[in-house]
Specification:
- Two copies of one chain form a homodimer.
- Chain A folds into two domains: 151 residues, Quinone Oxidoreductase, Chain A, domain 1 (Alpha-Beta Complex); 149 residues, NAD(P)-binding Rossmann-like Domain (Rossmann fold).
- Chain A is 28% helix and 25% strand.
- In chain A, the strands form three sheets. In chain A, strands 3, 4, 5, 6, 7, 14 and 15 form a seven-stranded mixed sheet that branches. Chain A has a six-stranded parallel sheet with strand order 10-9-8-11-12-13, with helices on both faces.
- In chain A, helix 7 links the parallel strand 11 and strand 12.
- Chain A is globular and about 60 Å long.
Chain lengths: 338, 338
């Protein structure tokens, strides 16, 4: 049987017991030009929460009754396709389930072995998370050597890579924003940012001004809402504000942005992106990030949640701040890259 | 004597009788490398209101007791500078006063004669207003042939030029947004937009969707606030949102912007600009706009207010919507280009 987590009803705030159901369905069969994949690990990303809303997005909403959409990795156990070989560890849209079929409609990438990296690291730094950090900073943010770079969600999976990549690319100062003293300490001590500001304390805009008296050249936003507004009030001339996600807004729209006129005063730009648009250029990013990993210049941390049935709980951790590093769900720990 | 309008106290909302004072001071003298200019006409722009606030901006605030800063045109009546000749009609920062000195610290541009254009037309279409429309649409908005272009403040000086320039450059549809049925009728009938939506009616976002079912490629924003928010909810993929001014926000900050996440979903960009940055490229814009004028493809309208003492009233017209075309104050109607 194939155990699956399906969307039962659309959540209005956080995902609750009523949002998803755990169901069993027959094992999928492997047809012509298909491969059967045993799912090993799920990548838990904030965007999954947006797919649960019945709202226009960059992908269609997950239908009620459908398996929850998710990326993840697994191993090919049967193949009738020349693209996949039994034993290949593959990455793609697995969904929250134990088994999935890879084919032309749902293609997977074969992951490289022999890099000495475990599956969790690859799903984190060389997966969607690392790609998002890279193209957001380099391509959308047009980060240049000497820039003052500020990142929100700095203790999070994407934010922690953004800051370290900015440092490696010659930022003059790297400032994180995170929630609570523990996360802020980790951002400085473990991820090596110059400074980290706690958004839960008052006066974020004033404290950003103290940390960046010449203004912010690149602001990488992972949270939206009042933190984005505080950053906008501190942009430097010709600044680039990169909108990666708005995690504070996914469960609850909250207050609006008041400081857009700073974009006029400082001739600055705010631009959103979706990492799916960069798939064709992933190798470029992977090469640079793998080099930093090999040199020991890219600290990373994965937060493993065991058991498919705990995937909804893992998703909620992203919004409660209860996770610690890139959140992954281990569906079957027999699936490894070694 | 030099009659002047000075800033008496900073306004909190609209400019009132207490905001400015009418004073007389001695006629300025013309030193070495200076010219004495008799002011003929003032350009009344929304940005003057922002200079009255004690807030960080792209120029320092006007000091209390100082002549109100403003651009305008005048005629050289005495010159001890090789740059200026007696009789030259010049454009620059005149301030709200009858006489001003042109020198290296306050340089003026000599306006061309013989184009068959009157001073009001030149101050409008070939002045800061036309330059703002051109560089906002072409440079910041990167408008391409076939684009769907939406402009707020469409009956206003800048907006009306933006729409006509978009049409001339091959826009597939040009939609205006303005306040009230009369202005909307003028936008379509006099300025030739395809359609104009009244922001005072409800459901602007829905009506924008009806007018632009494929989404907005370039949105040129002159007003900010809820109109900007409605446009953001309708951006097309890779749209460019040009922030030119936020006239609805100058007197009163109002509600924030809620739809920034559409910039992510649609991989769109929002960017502000200040026309002072483009001074070196004004000739490029003037050539194109003068050609459209000569062909009769650029309708324009000037709203003349007579008398320096009425400059504060003229400024308020911009915010009450009581003006009808580019607002100019006639200080001395003997100053002409003919």
């Amino acid at each position: 049987m194939n155990r699956q987590v399906i969307l039962r009803e659309r959540p209005t705030g956080a995902v609750s017991d009523a949002t998803t159901s755990f169901v069993e369905s027959p094992l999928p069969t492997c047809g012509d030009d298909q491969a059967l994949v045993r799912v090993g690990m799920l990548s838990i990303d904030p965007t999954i929460r947006t797919w649960m809303n019945d709202a226009p997005g960059y992908l269609a909403p997950i239908a009620v009754g459908e398996v929850v959409r998710s990326s993840g990795a697994g191993v090919v156990v049967e193949s009738r396709s020349p693209r996949y070989h039994v034993g290949d560890v593959v990455f793609g849209m697995t969904g929250w389930q134990e088994w999935v079929v890879a084919d032309a409609a749902n293609p997977f990438t074969v992951l490289p072995r022999g890099l000495g990296l475990d599956l969790a690291t690859v799903l984190n730094v060389l997966g969607v998370t690392g790609m998002t950090a890279f193209f957001g900073l380099v391509d959308v943010g047009v980060m240049k050597s000497g820039d003052v770079v500020v990142v929100s969600g700095a203790a999070g999976a994407t934010g922690s890579v953004v800051g370290q990549l900015a440092r490696a690319r010659g930022a003059s100062k790297v400032v994180g924003i995170a929630g609570g003293p523990q996360k802020c300490a980790e951002v400085v001590e473990f991820y090596g940012f110059d400074e980290c500001l706690d958004y839960r304390e008052t006066g974020l805009s004033r404290r950003l001004h103290q940390a960046c008296p010449q203004g912010i050249d690149v602001y990488f936003d992972n949270v939206g809402g009042p933190v984005l507004d505080a950053a906008l009030s501190n942009v430097a001339m010709h600044a680039r504000v990169v909108l990666c996600g708005a995690i504070s807004q996914y469960n609850d729209a909250g207050a609006g942005i008041a400081n857009t006129s700073m974009l006029i005063m400082r001739r600055a730009r705010m631009e959103g992106f979706i990492i799916l648009d960069y798939v064709a250029r992933f190798d470029e990013a992977r090469a640079e990030l793998a080099t930093l990993l090999a040199r020991g210049e890219l600290a990373h941390r994965e937060h493993l949640v065991r058991g498919l049935e705990n995937a909804p709980l893992a998703l909620n951790l992203l919004f409660s701040g209860g996770n610690h590093g890139k959140t992954l769900v281990v569906v079957d720990d027999a699936v490894t890259l070694s």
